[in-house]
Amino acid sequence: MVYIGCDVDGVLLDMQDRVREQAKRMYGMDLDVKSQTVYDMSQVVQKDVLRGIFSEPGTYESVPVYAGAREFLKRLREYGDVFAYTSVPACGFEGRVKQLRWLGFKNSEILMFSGDKPYIHWFDMLIEDDPSKVRQYVKMGSNVVLFDRPYNKKCGSGFSRAYGYQDVLDIVGWKYGYECRRGGVACKA
After folding, report:
1. How many domains are there within the chain?
2. Which residues span the domain enclosing 57?
3. What is the per-residue pLDDT across 60-71, written as a single tens digit (0 to 9) for each?
4. Crossing angle, helix 69-76 and helix 165-176, to 10 degrees?
5. What distance in Å separates the CA atoms of residue 189 and residue 186, rounded to the nearest whole number?
6. Could you give the 3-state DSSP secondary structure of residue 125?
7. Looking at the whole model, is its pTM more than 0.85?
């Protein structure tokens, strides 16, 4: 059995686009292209503005889902058990759970943290876009797939880089293909 952890924001959901949209609607801020080249939006937007955006009712229920995310997760589940992990303020838990259920996750497959995501050591593989988390997980010995985004181009080494969902499936299949399961039965890929 293979256990795969999949980060949510930046891999399945476009939270940066949501922040840009909310900043414009709520504060009249037009965030430039620079906001697309940093992971930590607090480098571009004041923290009190981010707090306002994140506490706005409905923010976490309407984060854009990346095209192909549902199909990707369905196919990823052929290789093992897939868990979503994410960091969300308490006010966003309910909305985030709704979106994750829509993506096909059961409650028992959702790990939510109200602060910084800790090192999650029990997964065989992690799919992550945050450069600092990737470096941390690699340093701790985890198999990591870095999901390519404009803000993680200079992340370093020691991981596989995926430029899309098919790349992730290819990497996971290559590493764990002999341990995949189809219909609950262990098989060779």
Report:
1. 2
2. 15-61
3. 888 999 999 999
4. 10
5. 10
6. strand
7. yes
